[in-house]
Structure formats: structure tokens, C-alpha cells
Design a protein that fits this description.
The complex is a heterodimer of chains A (402) and B (120). Chain A is of the alpha/beta class. Helices cover 34% and strands 18% of the residues of chain A. Chain B has helices at residues 3-13, 67-70, and strands at residues 18-22, 28-29, 44-48, 52-61, 75-82, 87-92, 101-109, 112-119. In chain B, the strands form two sheets. Chain B has a five-stranded mixed barrel. In chain B, strands 2-1-3 form a three-stranded antiparallel sheet. The longest helix of chain B has 11 residues, at 3-13. The chains are: A alpha/beta (402), B mainly beta (120). Bound molecules: zinc ion. Residues 22, 24-25, 27, 36, 38-39, 41 of chain B line the site of zinc ion.
Amino acid sequence: MGAQFYAIPDDTSRFHVDLPVRTLMAYITGVGDTAFGRHAGETALTLMAQAANAALADAGLARAEVDGLLCGYATTLPHLMLSTVFAEYYGLQPVYAHALQLGGATGCAMAMLARELVDAGRCREVLVVAGENRLSGQTRDAAIQTLAQVGHPDYEVPYGASVPAYYALLASRYMHEYPVSETDLAEFAVLMRRHAGAHPGAHLKEPISVADVLASKKIAAPLKLLDCCPISDGAVALLVSREPRAGLGVRIAGAGQAHLHQHVSSIASVSDLGARRAARSAMDEAGVGLGDIDYLGIYDSFSITLLILLEEIGIAARGAAAARLGSGDFAPAGRLPLNTHGGLLSYGHCGVAGGMAHIAEAQRQLARKAGARQAGERHCALVHGDGGVLSSHVSLVLRRDE
Amino acid sequence: MNKHAAHFWEGCAAGELRYQHCAACAALQFHARAFCLRCGGAKLEWRTAQGSGTVYALSSVARAPTDEFRALAPYVIVLVDLDEGLRMMAHGAPGLCIGDRVRAGFFVHGGRSLPRFDKS
Ligand SMILES: [Zn+2]
């Protein structure tokens, strides 16, 4: 480890106020989304409105009852005041509103904040929404601007590093320290595609094999095209409420965060990126352990992202995530169904909403409203989002009130 | 670019890898700032690394993000742990492996002198 890394001890007591385990008053009472893929002619606002309509309809709530609004940033609408732009467009007059930016962890962070707002009594009904026409509305300049924000402008971007290259660097080191192969990574891309095949709204549904992934176009070794998520248009909305919906309570029982670095060249250790700290904090707050979790929604911008997160959180031992996949545990009928909507890798990635789709799917699984994808009776989900280069971590524990 | 990082890139143009040393606590830092990351001290001195290190991570980039780098693809990006105890991103020679002992050289691309490490 380099001299410039002043390691912060892995002590979760630093990461949350030591609250007694209690029942927080925060429920995800409605979820809504658009299909992901290409939606020519739509904008961030029109997509967000479609998802918001669907979430309100799901919750059976009138628009006028929404008193809080949290919006995820949109690269195709980089407005100073996205939340109030959306509020005016959609016809809301909330008592609390702003947008939030935490890369891929934004969706989980917004759900966490919405929970704090309704639990504290500040709001009763918080609409959490994000969406954008990232595929059809993104100019090349905007793509470069996004890249420049992810890499260090002075010490990384000048080398011609791409977003996949930052993850590839992380992958190379992780695969050096632990027994993880390119085939292991490919297995996760194949699993996500298989799950997406069961979702009518998924961006990529055509089945793929491990051989297809390994033979796909080189991007940044060891990552190939099919190790990377697509760029999509789409939107997702959640309604977070103080009271459960009649006959259905899916509670945000715990939440936790950890932020240890921003840039890949400032990562002190690929074995302590913050995921475990965030997940442990969320589970401690919910009063559950990994053994209580029976559904997983884990961020998967790249195959390596998903594998590292599963292993750091402790869902599989180091180097053993692919073996656990091979045992069938992550399939809908398995012990720990994983991203049954297909994840970012195949359901698609339209920015903040891409990470929110994991939350929406987890809520549907717990509410037993996942239709053809319903993975039996699930009670307790762990959802994890990360932003940057495994930089910002936010975990949520969702529980079904029994 | 911030003025501190500019000093690093001026160093590259002169064939040097420059980093900061804190006069108060002797901490080293590679990403230059106006203050010491460890103690907050404002008295930072520039030093020059002797240029050797060990490959920590690497990737061969096939799809470059800009036209400027497309001409160079595929190229190798490395994270190197300098012997001083500092980690930096740079280019690397083809065929490097993690753990290889390397030494810094420089090449000019797009009007800028970029460090590139090769086996020592
Ligand atoms: Zn100091």
C-alpha cells in the first residue's frame, strides 16, 4: 500500500449513529418504470413522468398527495434545479424537493433519504424518480464530459483512460489477488441475460453464452463488450410512504453508506472498497444478518462490479461467487435470487434509474407482484448500489411486514 | 487543470515524476494539493521520484474514449506503486504483468509528455 493512503479503520461504529433497532416508518408503497431501451423522441422529463404515473398508480395515490420529491440527476438534462423543473412539469407542489448526485448509488441514496424524511415526519409521501434518454439523447460531447467527471481530471483522464478502463484496472488487480477468471465474469453476464429474458421491459433479451461473452469485442482487458452494461433510455420511480399500503408492507428496514475513495488510483485496497461496511451498517440497523437475506439486488455496471460486490459483502467467499452462481443459488428458484429483472447488464442502464430498477424489482419480489419472474415467497432483500469506480456505496435492507 | 497538478506535468515535460512532501509531518502525496492530506499542513515541497516501481494493476485499452487516443489504441494503462510508496496512473509497455519491476520513461502524445513504464 502506498504512503499516500491513510487507511480508515473498518469500524462500522463510525458509519452510523448507534440507534437501537426499531421499526422505521418508511415503506415502498409503489414502484413504476418504463421499458428500458431506445425511446426516440422522449426526454428525461417525459420518461420520468411515465415512471411517476406508474408508481402512483401502483400505490393508488393521487398526485396531489405527494409532498416530497427527490430526483436523480440526468446527464441529458443537467439543470441546476431538476427537481423543481420536474415538479412544475408534472404538476407537483412539494414541501421538500431537490435532486441528488451519487453516480450509480444515487437511487439507493435517494431511497435512504426518503426514508429519513418520512420517518422524521417531514413528509408523508415522497416520490423518488429518475430517468433519461441517455441512449437516444446523448451527444458525444456529453459522453466525454461524463467520463471526465469519473476519472481524475489531472492524473487519470490525460492518459486516455475510459470508464471501462478504470473498472478493468480494478478487475486486473482483483483477479491477481483472488482466483477469479474471465469465464467467472462471463457467467454473471450470462445469468443477467437469462433473467432479462423473463422481463418484457428489458433492453437486451437475446440469450448469450459464456463463449459469446469471451468472444465479444475487446474493450479494456479483461473486460469485453458483453462484460459491460448497455446505454439505455428509461425511467424508474418509487413512492416512499410513512404508512404501509393496505395489505402490503415493504419496509426500508435498514440503510448504510460508505465512501472511501473517488478515483481508481486512490483505492487503498481492492479488498475493502466500502461495500461490506455499507451492507453491514444497513443490516445492523435492520437487525438482520446475511443469513436472513433471501433476495439480492446488487449493482452490476460491469460483470466485475457484481462479482466484487458479492464477495466483499460476504455473500460468497473471495473467489467463490461464480461457484455459488454455478450451484444455482442466484437463480429465481435458488436460495438467493439475484437481479431477477436482468440488472444493468441486460435490463439496461440509463443512469440513476438503472440502479433504481434493482430497488423496484426487490420491492416487487417482496410484494409478490413480480408476475412471471416471481421467485417464490421472499421476505428480506439486500439492495446495494455503487457509484464511481466502486467509490460510493449505499445498501438498503427491505423487509416484508408479515 | 489546477496549478498544483500543472507542476507535475511540467515535471513530465522535463523527464521527471514530481510529488509533494509535507515539511511538517513528512507525508508524501502524489495527487497534488495546497495542503497535506494527513496533517493539513500547508508547507509542501516538491520532490522528484527516482522513477522505479512495481506494477499494481493494468489494462490494455482497445476502445479509446477520444479521437486523440484512438490513433494509439490498443495501449496499456497501468497503476504503478513507485518505490517511494506512491501510486500513480501511467502508460505501460505492451506485455507487462502485475508485479513486474518497472522504470519510467516518457513519450509525447497530443502535445503532452506522458510517463510510460517499461520493465527495468
Ligand atoms: Zn503533513
